[in-house]
């Protein structure tokens, strides 16, 4: 078997399939593009779904990739097992309706055993097959020549994740030898395919040959597919002959750096080894996730990222690392991965900035959490409790990021135990909440045979034309190909040539009309989308007979197209302006260009100030006023990058790309339509800016006619306000508003003065109603004041005049109740505490509260309980005196 490092193994795999005429796809972003069903890209096939379900036809039906992936469903097992990871790479080869089982099996065997490639000993390889898949069994036995005792039938070998493509699979296992056997000879899992350490699964071949339909029936796929997956990390552990994935060259340089920082040695016998593994695993995931645009937050993938960061920090503390240290590991990750993922080193300054900010915040949070934990344990001791509740442990975990192990450790130091069962129950509830919050769309769509059969070419000429004659080559109605359609039907049409732009890249499809030879409108185009092979698919409402093979005039709505082009070109200017003002990390994360406005989503890890928005707006408008020519060029990706063109993050491009250049200011890969000069945009106005998710923000803006309509609406509102305030003109509004504000301020002061006088008058009556219990004088009364602030004023007056030992006042305010308790020095010296009293009576008004020994307050939602709460004061005094 060849001795390879991680970079050599990855490249060898891709080279092998390139020789088999596969197109090697670049690893996609970990942050899914246009796929709400996924939190992260979690496998190689996740990025191929559009090809597998037939919604897009690839330029080459044979594909191969090394896809970075993240899975966090078993995060607690990372570091404890040999092969659990959050970030991993999946080597995969795929066939979209091209080759099938025989080629997939023979090529897998060739790559693993041939001297030119991995050169594994064939006797050490075993395979599993689905019992009903006699074809795969036959290929392994007769074509490969594998002995029958090396082929195991497994009932679980059927890959099915719900609706869409599915089928049997065949797994390949490597025998690491008896030394790795962790089970007894008679253990039912002690065989190739079982849960054991001896026979290690290294490759899974999935033969997608059925459509799992919504009614749970299985039909043969119109196009059979191949999907395979080989984990780079575990394959590397076999090739480098190390006990676990963590001893490979993908992890050891990180572990060595942690040794240097901590002063602790990583060795097989060290009980600290798990912490080294967790840190090495998590910092890889963190670096790649941030590099791909994910940012820490309290929701979604941002929450996952924050959790990984905090777990790594906590394991650093177990190694004695008390200061931020993860930033020192990012360059190490970059060096390990630079040959295939140079972006980590390129983005190291940004990645380390984000991580350092999180580390510093978490160290502050840890201090708060320890303080909170100490408060809880002190209360437990006073109450003679010895078990910390699962709810309290979960709150520490969820709010402060405390791992349960740390809570157990602190509790043990104080002779306390933790209710782990209760903690797990709370964790389960959280997982259920997270699961229900996720979009549970099927992982794939049911494959459509109809659109995949579209063979007719269609040329888009809409960059320079909005009107042309074209032959109608395809009519689709009711999911069938038709020769003609009548008035009233809604159908999809393909022409051999069209000026209509198909919806993509954030730009909506064109609308317009289709006319016959007499110039009569025979159909209205309501939208245009791309077919799997890229043909513009016109969605139309039929107004008169349409026949396949006839020539029609296709005319785009000129006004709508012009408005779209202005907004689209403005998004390019805005994208560059964002980078100018916020920094290069601000990348486009989605857009929508319509005739009315543009919507632009972008990555940013902080708030955007009004001043920054103003700067962006000014920059864009200045470029509009400069009348910069907008030009395009179609070239290779390499040449486009030499020009300095910016590719949209996460997008995949063909061999040739179209670059839209706005002078030297903006250069982007883009297939959309644009104005010929920035002056055509007219004006640009940012209407709103807001956060829409973890590390993602959204700008809504308008140009030209959309801006004019917005201005008209704003002026209408101002005129209405002007009329209401009886201003002579809009210009007088600031003065009128100033006058109203002063009048309001004067009235408010007068009102507060009157309220205070009324409260003082009421105080004389309230403070005269003094009761006595056990030599303790007290006042417990309901008062009619404005708010909690006036309750506190009454308490201050009571304290100054020393009317009694205890004061309890209650206020009903709509559907709420406010309570305040004050204790004199005499009462406090007798051991009475305001906080204890408020905790006793607050539940009677449906609330809770607390405070100092001399002052406490509470709120509640049960006004009917106020009388009972005030009446119970005397009983409390008796019980506590």
Question: How does this structure look, described?
Answer:
This protein is of the alpha+beta class. The protein folds into 5 domains: 6-245, Bira Bifunctional Protein, Domain 2 (BirA Bifunctional Protein, domain 2, 2-Layer Sandwich), CATH 3.30.930.10; 281-437, no CATH class; 454-556, Beta Barrel (Elongation Factor Tu (Ef-tu), domain 3); 575-712, Threonyl-trna Synthetase, Chain A, domain 2 (Threonyl-tRNA Synthetase, Chain A, domain 2, 2-Layer Sandwich), CATH 3.30.980; 767-880, Diaminopimelate Epimerase, Chain A, domain 1. It contains 25 helices and 35 strands. The strands form 8 sheets. Strands 1, 2, 3, 4, 5, 6, 7, 8 and 9 form a 9-stranded mixed β-sheet that branches. Strands 13-16-20-19-18-22 form a 6-stranded antiparallel barrel. β6 and β7 form a beta hairpin. α16 (558-582) packs across α17 (610-625). The chain is globular, with a radius of gyration of 35 Å. The termini are far apart. Keywords: Aminoacyl-tRNA synthetase, ATP-binding, Coiled coil, Cytoplasm, Ligase, Metal-binding, Nucleotide-binding, Protein biosynthesis, RNA-binding, tRNA-binding, Zinc. One of its GO terms (cellular component) is cytosol. Belongs to the class-II aminoacyl-tRNA synthetase family. Pfam families: DHHA1, tRNA-synt_2c, tRNA_SAD. This is Alanine--tRNA ligase.
């Amino acid at each position: 078997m060849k001795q390879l490092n991680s970079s050599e193994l990855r490249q060898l795999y891709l080279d092998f399939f390139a020789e088999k005429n596969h197109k090697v796809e670049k690893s996609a972003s970990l942050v899914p593009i246009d796929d709400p069903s996924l939190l992260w890209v979690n496998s190689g096939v996740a990025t191929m779904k559009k090809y597998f379900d037939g919604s897009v036809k690839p330029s080459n039906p044979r594909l191969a990739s090394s896809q970075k992936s993240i899975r966090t469903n078993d995060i607690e097992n990372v570091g404890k097992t040999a092969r659990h990871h959050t970030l991993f790479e999946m080597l995969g080869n795929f066939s979209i309706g091209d080759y099938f089982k025989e080629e997939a099996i023979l090529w897998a065997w060739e790559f693993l055993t041939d001297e030119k490639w991995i050169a594994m000993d064939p006797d050490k390889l075993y395979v599993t097959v689905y019992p009903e898949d006699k074809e795969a069994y036959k290929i392994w036995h007769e074509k490969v020549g594998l002995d029958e005792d090396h082929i195991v039938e497994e009932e679980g070998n059927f890959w099915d994740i719900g609706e869409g493509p599915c089928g049997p699979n065949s797994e390949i296992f490597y025998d690491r030898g008896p030394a790795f056997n962790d089970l007894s000879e008679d253990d039912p899992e002690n065989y190739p395919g079982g849960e054991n350490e001896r026979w290690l699964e290294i490759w899974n071949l999935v033969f997608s040959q059925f459509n799992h339909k919504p009614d749970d029936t299985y039909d043969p796929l119109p196009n059979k597919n191949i999907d395979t997956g080989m984990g780079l990390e575990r394959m590397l552990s076999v090739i480098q002959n190390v006990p676990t994935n963590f001893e490979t060259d993908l992890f050891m340089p990180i572990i060595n750096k942690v040794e240097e920082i901590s002063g602790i040695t990583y060795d097989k016998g060290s009980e600290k080894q798990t912490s080294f593994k967790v840190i090495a695993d998590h910092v890889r995931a963190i670096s790649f996730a941030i590099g791909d645009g994910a940012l820490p937050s309290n929701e979604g993938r941002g929450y996952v990222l924050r959790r990984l960061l905090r777990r790594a920090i906590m394991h650093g503390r177990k190694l004695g690392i008390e200061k931020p240290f993860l930033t020192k590991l990012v360059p190490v990750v970059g060096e390990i991965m630079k040959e295939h993922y140079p972006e980590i080193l390129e983005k190291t300054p940004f990645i380390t900035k984000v991580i350092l900010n999180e580390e510093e915040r978490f160290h502050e949070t840890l201090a708060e959490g320890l303080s909170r934990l100490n408060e809880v344990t002190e209360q437990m001791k006073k109450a003679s409790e010895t078990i910390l509740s699962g709810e309290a442990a979960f709150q520490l975990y969820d709010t402060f990021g405390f791992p349960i192990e740390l809570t157990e450790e602190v509790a043990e130091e104080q002779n306390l135990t933790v209710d782990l069962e209760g903690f797990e129950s709370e964790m389960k509830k959280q997982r259920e909440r997270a699961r229900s919050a996720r979009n549970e769309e099927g992982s794939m769509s049911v494959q459509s045979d109809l659109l995949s059969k579209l063979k007719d070419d269609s040329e888009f000429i809409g960059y320079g034309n909005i009107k042309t004659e074209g032959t109608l080559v395809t009519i689709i109605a009711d999911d069938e190909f038709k020769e003609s359609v009548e008035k009233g039907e809604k159908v999809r049409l393909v022409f051999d040539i069209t000026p209509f732009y198909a919806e993509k890249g954030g730009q909506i499809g064109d609308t317009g009309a289709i006319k016959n030879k007499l110039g009569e409108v025979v159909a209205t185009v309501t939208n245009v989308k791309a077919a799997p092979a890229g043909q513009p698919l016109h969605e139309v409402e039929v107004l008169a007979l349409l026949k396949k093979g006839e020539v029609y005039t296709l005319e785009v709505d000129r006004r709508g197209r012009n408005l779209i082009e202005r907004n689209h070109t403005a998004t390019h200017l805005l994208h560059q302006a964002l980078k100018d003002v916020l920094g290069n990390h601000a990348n486009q994360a989605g857009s929508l260009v319509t005739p009315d406005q543009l919507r632009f989503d972008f990555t940013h890890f902080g708030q955007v100030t009004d001043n920054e928005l103003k700067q962006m707006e000014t920059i864009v408008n200045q470029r509009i006023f400069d009348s910069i020519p907008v030009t395009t060029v179609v070239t290779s990706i390499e040449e486009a990058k030499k020009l300095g063109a910016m590719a949209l993050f996460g997008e995949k491009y063909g061999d040739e790309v179209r670059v839209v250049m706005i002078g030297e200011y903006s250069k982007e890969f883009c297939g959309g339509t644009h104005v010929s000069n920035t002056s055509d945009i007219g004006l640009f106005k940012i209407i709103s800016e807001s956060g829409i998710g973890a590390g993602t923000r959204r700008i809504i803006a308008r140009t030209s006619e959309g801006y004019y309509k917005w201005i008209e609406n704003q002026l209408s509102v101002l005129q209405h306000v002007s009329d209401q305030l009886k201003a002579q003109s809009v210009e007088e509004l600031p003065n009128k508003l100033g006058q109203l504000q002063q009048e309001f301020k004067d009235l408010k002061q007068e009102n507060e003065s009157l309220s205070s006088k009324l409260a003082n008058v009421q105080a004389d009556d309230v403070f005269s109603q003094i009761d006595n219990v056990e030599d303790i004088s007290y006042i417990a009364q309901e008062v009619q004041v404005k708010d909690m602030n006036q309750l506190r004023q009454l308490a201050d007056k009571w304290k100054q005049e020393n009317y009694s030992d205890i004061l309890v006042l209650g206020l009903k305010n709509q559907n709420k109740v406010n309570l305040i308790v004050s204790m004199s020095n005499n009462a406090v010296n007798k051991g009475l505490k305001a906080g204890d009293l408020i905790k006793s009576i607050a539940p009677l008004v449906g609330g809770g509260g607390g405070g100092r020994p001399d002052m406490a307050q509470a709120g509640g939602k049960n006004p009917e309980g106020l009388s009972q709460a005030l009446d119970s004061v005397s009983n409390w005094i008796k019980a506590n005196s």
